[in-house]
Amino acid sequence: MELRVLKYFLTVAREGSITGAANSLHLTQPTLSRQLMDLEKELGHKLLIRGKSNITLTSEGIMLKKRAEEIIDMVEKTEAEFEAINEIIGGDIYIGCGETDSMRHIAEIMKELQSEYPDIKFHIHSGNAEDVTEKLDKGLLDFGVLIQPIDLSKYDYISLPDKDVWGVIMRKDSPLAAKKVIKLDDLIGVPIIASRQMSKKYSAQSGFLDWFGGEFDKLNITATYNLVYNAAIMVEAGLGYAVTLDKLINTSRNNNLVFRPLEPKLESGLDIVWKKYQVFSPAAKLFLDKLQNKFGQNNL
Hints:
Layout (H helix, E strand, L loop, with lengths): L2 H13 L2 H8 L3 H15 L4 E3 L4 E3 L1 H27 L5 E7 L5 H14 L3 E7 L2 H9 L5 E5 L7 E17 L12 H4 L3 E5 L4 H7 L1 H5 L7 E6 L2 H9 L4 E5 L11 E5 L5 E9 L6 H14 L5
Parallel strand pairs: 3-4, 3-5, 7-8, 7-9
Antiparallel strand pairs: 1-2, 5-11, 6-9, 6-10, 6-11
Helix pairs in contact: 1-2, 1-4, 5-11
């Protein structure tokens, strides 16, 4: 497969038609159609369903689209890194992170580094640990900020100093809003909007099973979420109580939501991680140096 043809394929997938893609690529329609048919022949699978006025992807086409985007991203990232070697120190740093107030520590280092090297640019990918580690393993990210616990056997890492506190966000007019802390009995029977850390797959590692003891299966989990912004919208709509980390949602006096910590306290630490034996770009190496200077060089 040639990168040029993969870019053609992605353009067709984006435009939804041969005509639109050909115009975008400044190619004739017969030339573009022939390139796509050669790609299908090379892979041995039909990638496109050609309708009268539009193009749709087959299941194999959807899979190739995802892989092609990753390949193009990787190639562009690599080219940018090599271009940066011969220039004034600059380039792109890619960081994946979960939702945590401790990102402010990372933001402070980003600001400091960018003040010294204005040509350095940062790209942040927000997602859960599964999303971040997948991109990290594929080389699409330089660093990941992960909420503990997480399997770190494949990574070098630095532990950040803060711990995030788990609790519940709710409407101010909710019955539980009158309490200062939320205990296990308070959550039995009420509609729960649960984070991924509370799922059976992750709860044993995150400490939730220990916190809930034998009562975990009695929870009335009516919805789940990946990013807490969406959970807050569901809470405001009256769908239930969202179990989440502190300081992620505005619970100021003028807001309709409040946060109450769990009792006994449940906390999660954080790590910034990178692949073992990773070869960094000059910009990413400078960022790592600043991380190590601020937080120490343990766990390498």
